[in-house]
Amino acid sequence: MPVDTLVGMSDLVISLPDEGLLEALGGVPGARFEAWELDGPAPRSKLDIVVPPYWGSARRLARLEDVDVRLVQWQSIGYNGVAQHLPEGMPFANAASVHEASTAELAVALALDSQRGLPEFQRDAAAHRWNLRTFPSLADRRVLLVGYGGVSKAIEARLAGFEVTIERLARTAREDRNASGAAVPVHSLDGLRTRLAEADIVMLAVPLTDETEGLIGAEELAAMPDGALLVNVARGPVVDTSALLAELRAGRLRAALDVTDPEPLPEDHPLWDCPNALITPHAGGDSTAMLPRMTALIRRQIAHLQAGETPENLVLGSWA
């Protein structure tokens, strides 16, 4: 049911996909909100901002074809597959600033759990078995961050107290600034295999593109040292699942995966049965931090449009 916070001919009209966002936003001066999950005809022929549902909404973007939309505000950082369905030229912003902290938290948790053997201790506990064993520390490990955007910078910030050595890779070599503002070297992906061979823990946080699909294949996995840990909080197809499965079954490598290919992972998929794999269901950004941060981003986008400014995070389309 449409809910108006203020009524006026000059108000911006924003469509929201769920009551949670509607309630969190409350009243915004100069803005009105319409409920629309992109599951049927648009509530209006003109919408200033469209916020699609968080999950499974890329195909629904085709419903915007005959709607006058000033900005599509996505709720994820990643937007692979969007260009296939988004009307050509329509301005589209991703949700940078919303998910980095939560995704980084999970990445560090996956690494720490895997290093210190928590999954195995939990299996022992379920069997009422006291079985003291020694597992590798996180301290003193060599960590390779593959991709150096907002998520990797957030991971690096959270690893600061763990006494690790960090290397950074991205599409192009450069000097960048980490989350604390310090200058840090970022190496090119051209040196991926060499850097993989020197890493105890590899954390993937790259967008899924033609360049990164299959980035970690059989040869890259073979370059990793025995016992190394692969943490994937990027997208499933960044890793060749068959090649990873072969390494896991051989017991040579370990993996902690928040994303998989295929996804959702079918219940009969052999990855589930690998004791050296820790799997979470693409939960990286889905924490209690999401709603307030998404709400804050939408409020900022409304303010930008009201002020005649360019919106944040534009990644597709054009802005006049």
How would you sum up this structure, described in words?
This protein is an alpha/beta fold. It has two domains: 116 residues, Rossmann fold (3-Layer(aba) Sandwich); 180 residues, Rossmann fold (3-Layer(aba) Sandwich). The chain contains eight helices and 14 strands. The strands form two sheets. Strands 8-9-7-6-10-11-12-13 form an eight-stranded mixed beta sheet, with helices on both faces. Strands 2-1-3-4-5-14 form a six-stranded mixed beta sheet. A hairpin with a 5-residue loop joins strand 8 and strand 9. The longest helix is centred in the last third of the chain and has 17 residues. The relative contact order is 0.14.
Question: Secondary-structure blueprint of this entry?
Answer:
Layout lengths: L11 E5 L2 H7 L5 E5 L10 E5 L17 E6 L18 E2 L6 H16 L2 H9 L15 E5 L3 H10 L5 E6 L3 E4 L5 E6 L3 H5 L4 E4 L13 H6 L5 E4 L8 H10 L3 E4 L19 E3 L10 H17 L7 E3 L4
Parallel strand pairs: 1-2, 1-3, 3-4, 4-5, 6-7, 6-10, 7-9, 10-11, 11-12, 12-13
Antiparallel strand pairs: 5-14, 8-9
Helix pairs in contact: 1-8, 2-4
